[in-house]
Amino acid sequence: MPYIKQEMRQGIDAKLDQLVETVNQTVDGDENLLKGVMNYTITTLINKVYPVDSYSKFNDIMGILKGVDFEFYRRRVVPYEKQKAFENGDCYPNPIETEVNTGKLPNCS
After folding, report:
1. Nearest to 46 by CA among 64, 69, 72
2. Tell me, what DSSP letter sits at residue 75?
3. How far apart are CA 28 and CA 21, in angstroms?
4. Rounded Cα distance, 21 and 17, in Å
5. CB 79 within 8 A of CB 106
6. What does pTM read for this prediction?
7. How far apart are the first and last CA of the chain?
8. What does the alpha-carbon distance between residue 78 and residue 72 come to, in Å, rounded to a whole number?
9. Rounded to whole angstroms, how far apart are CA atoms 16 and 47?
10. pLDDT (tens digit per residue) in 16-56
11. Are 94 and 65 in contact (CB under 8 A)?
12. φ, ψ for residue 92 (rounded to 5)?
């Protein structure tokens, strides 16, 4: 989970803001280039933080990436999908998500 203490975030966030600015300047709005730059950036961060190869480290890294994937899906993709199902109609005959049926959606912003 990405929920580290607030005081730990400050230094990391400042450096991440610089990295985001560098990435945005590098890609200059090119969405295809952004995909490659993001892949390179994440891969290089992992390789620099975990420079020694071992099964244990590989297992840790894959667990971290899966956690990021699951949390991103839960927090960003699911609300977006719920909003689109509400706006455009669900594509399942018996929607599971009661929010779609009732029109009571959580704040997706």
Report:
1. 64
2. I
3. 10
4. 6
5. yes
6. 0.79
7. 20
8. 9
9. 17
10. 999 999 999 999 999 999 999 999 999 999 999 999 999 99
11. no
12. -105, 140
